[in-house]
Amino acid sequence: MSTADGLRVVTLAAQAEMALVRRDQVAGPLLAQAARAADGTPAGRLLREASAMVRGAPEREAVRQAALSLCRMALQDAHAQVLGAAS
Questions:
Q1: Could you read off the pLDDT of 21-79 as tens digits, one per residue?
Q2: What is the DSSP-derived secondary structure letter of residue 18?
Q3: How far is it, in rounded angstroms, from Cα 44 to Cα 32?
Q4: For residue 39, is it left (φ>0), alpha (ψ between -120 and 50) or beta?
Q5: What are the backbone dihedrals phi and psi of residue 41, each rounded to the nearest 5 degrees, phi first?
Q6: How far apart are CA 42 and CA 25, in angstroms?
Q7: Crossing angle, helix 61-86 and helix 3-21, to 10 degrees?
Q8: Most buried residue among 18, 25, 27, 75 by CB atoms closer than 10 A?
Q9: In degrees, to the nearest 5, what angle opens at C-alpha 66 toward C-alphas 22 and 24?
Q10: What is the four-CA torsion angle of 44, 50, 51, 55, rounded to 10 degrees?
Q11: Sequence-ordered alpha helix ranges (H) in 1-87
């Protein structure tokens, strides 16, 4: 993954994280978009799982919390990839 692609994943995952924190209804679509951008990476797997969880039961607090944790894990992984590519 190029640095530009990695930064795109970081940006999309951060937007999805904020949407989950705010309980915004766009969280699901943002997670799906971030998962597509991160396809083929460990972050992509985490984002796909979070997206599926939110799509299945977006109103449940436990689901939102779990999806938020997965999203944060994916964001950290994407950060690590970008920083690794930059060195």
A1: 999 999 999 999 999 999 999 999 999 999 999 998 878 999 999 999 999 999 999 99
A2: H
A3: 9
A4: beta
A5: -120, 165
A6: 25
A7: 160
A8: 27
A9: 20
A10: 160
A11: 3-21, 27-37, 42-56, 61-86
